[in-house]
Design a protein that fits this description.
Layout (H helix, E strand, L loop, with lengths): L8 E14 L5 E15 L4 E5 L6 H8 L7 E6 L2 E2 L5 H10 E4 L3 H4 L6 H11 L6 H13 L16 H13 L5 E5 L7 H18 L2 E6 L2 H5 L4 E6 L2 E7 H6 L4 H9 L39 H5 L5 E4 L2 E3 L14
Parallel strand pairs: 3-8, 3-9, 6-7, 7-8
Antiparallel strand pairs: 1-2, 1-4, 4-5, 9-10, 10-12, 11-12
Helix pairs in contact: 4-5, 5-6, 6-7
Amino acid sequence: MSQAPGPLLEVKDLAKTFKARRGWPVPKIVSVRALDGVSFSVARGEALGIVGESGCGKSTVARACLRLIAPDAGDVRFDGVDVIAAGSSALRELRRRLQIVFQDPASALDPRQRIADALGEPIRVHRIAKGKEVARTVERLLDEVGLPPTAARRYPHEFSGGQRQRIGIARALALGPDLIFADEPVSALDVSVQAQILVLLDQLRQRRRLAFVFISHDLGVVRHFCQRVVVMYLGRIVEEGLVPAIFEEPLHPYTRLLKASSPVPDPDAAVAMNLQEGEPPSPVDPPPGCHFHPRCPFVMERCRLVTPVLQEVSPGRRVACHLFDGPGQSVPN
């Protein structure tokens, strides 16, 4: 498959609604709009971070882009190929070039399968190698993620959480992908192990010129791995920009909240931000207008009625906030 010009991955107006049963003793069917017009792109070799609270739609984006679930609307193109409309043969080729590393390495690996088989199976299925060459390829993959060749003969329960995640990364690398979705890959690990995995991923990105979509709820983790960040809230993108700009001057009030909530070495450096009273809104019944308005300290009447448009406020910087609707507008200090 030849490389097409432009972004490696391009997502436009992605939408997905799930049905769920709620209530007792007579449950009713409710709709949960997980994605509401999500659009972004990823360049070759770039690490794009997607951040937001649990339930904002981050993982749904990954699964829709990989066609693990079918989106209701929108367009996903990988290297010029329409992922949503791809037939079986085209999808098989896409599976080689698009991979995912899951959040929980324990549940992502079959406990009854030796590591040699876990890594060797996709290599055989996609005919990357055969015979004794499969075992040699598995050894090379283990070495690339910092594990000894003897790991191939062992089972997942014999490894620590960090080692299991290294195995999950090796499995994602087995088919020589161009882009990897990393779905909260370090959130289940100790802080010291998180740093090791992030260093490994960055080395792999540079060595293999891999692109990453790095999904996390922690802005601090994304800051050390990604070049660009997309911030999501209740199924919508509220801000997008380069990592230095997002951290130096977050524009959307929700991004400011995420930054203030991110742990820092100096407690006195934390930025206080006063939120409105009340709980975060339910994704089953999101508020009209800007979904963040019930929690926003800068809320205006327009925010309660009109959905803000994601607009470019400077080159490479987009924000969906009514504070930026007029020329020269900005978030109050």
